[in-house]
Amino acid sequence: MILVTGATGFLGAELAKGLVLRGNKIRCTKRANSVIPKLLHPYSGQITWVTADLMDAAALEDALDGITQVYNCAAFVSLKAADKKVMIHTNVTGTANLVNLCTEKGIRMVHTSSVAAVGEAKPGEMITEKHHLDPSAENDGYAISKLESEMEVWRGIAEGMDAVIVNPSIILGVSAGTAGSGQIFATIKNGLKFYTSGTIGFVDVQDVAKVMIALMESGISDKRFIVSAENRAYQQIFPEIAGYLNVPPPSNLAKPWMLEIAWRAASFWGTVTGKAPAVDKTSARAGSVTRNFDNSAIKKAINFEFKPLSETLKEVSQRFK
Questions:
Q1: pTM for the whole thing?
Q2: 120, 64 Cβ separation under 8 angstroms
Q3: Coil/strand/helix, residue 167
Q4: What Cα–Cα distance (Å) separates residue 56 from each residue in 108, 151, 311?
């Protein structure tokens, strides 16, 4: 029996759908106040939902009854500075609870981390699975939470747990809506005027789900894999999206000093309104950083070819049109 945590989220829902379409009947966890995504409504007969927060070890143990495989997609994500400590605590403690139970029960796990936990390469080099984030020099609460959660999985592996880790780059897909990476498309549609000078990796959500399923079935263990289709400069990808949306492309370069002003203004406005800032310090500075990810390891490990990024951009843009 298969369990998916975080199945009410963007990636988790796509993964659950992929598993069901392969003929599986699965179990998915959700919080008491979570809403089952519309993407999964057609598959209610193949999915059993259980209420089990990863912070509740007792409920989690009940959810794992009879389970042999776990896909861990659950995570707390926030850009609010006030949420940094609770986000780190929640993600790390929740992962630790799951790791402890999977180790005890002999359950195989595919754990979802992020390229945010991978770290940086030297200028001109590709970032690979061998790079590791330096927590002493990192201020991004999300990245720290992902790194420390990943360390809990490595602890479990050292204690005998059968597990593999995936580190996706920016995940794109129609089902994201206007949340998360969907904000990129919504902002460009609404008339984005500026682009940044950085480069980052992108991947289709369906590809991430396929990779996770393939890894689970492969028997590969004690490894981490970067899951990223293509590296693109913002200066190139924003105009491409604008073209699919039939809107004017961003034409002004946002220089680093401008981004510094932007995140400070967004932080102030977020304090006034109580809402998450549109841009935070970490994401503003990341917009000018070049990060190129090497996806050769996962392609070789499971003989996988990624969907061309332009196809994903076009599909998501059609939703916004």
A1: 0.90
A2: no
A3: strand
A4: 20, 20, 40
CB atoms near residue 256 (< 10 Å): 12
Assess if CATH 3.30.1490.10 describes domain 2-172+202-228+293-306. no
Tell me which H or E stretch contains 22: none
**Contact status, residue 49 vs residue 55, Cβ threshold 8 Å:** no
- Burial of 168: CB neighbours in 10 Å, binned 0-12, 13-18, 19+: buried
C-alpha to C-alpha distance for 176 and 10, rounded to whole angstroms: 6
Q: What are phi and psi of 312, to 5 degrees?
A: -65, -45
Token couple for 17: 């759908």
CB-based burial, 268-288: b 16+ in 10 Å, e otherwise = eebeeeeebbbbbbbbbbbbb
Tell me, rounded to whole angstroms, the distance of Cα 105 from its chain centroid.
27
Q: Which of 162, 140, 145, 13 is nearest to 73 (CA)?
A: 13
Delimit the domains of the chain by residue range.
2-172+202-228+293-306
Q: Tens-digit pLDDT profile for the chain (321 aa)?
A: 999 999 999 999 999 999 999 999 999 999 888 899 999 999 999 999 999 999 999 999 999 999 999 999 998 777 666 777 888 888 899 999 999 999 999 999 999 999 989 988 888 899 999 998 887 766 777 888 999 999 999 999 999 999 999 999 999 999 988 888 888 899 889 888 876 778 899 999 999 999 999 999 998 999 999 999 999 998 899 999 999 999 998 887 665 534 443 434 444 345 444 655 555 445 545 555 788 999 999 999 999 999 999 999 999 999 887
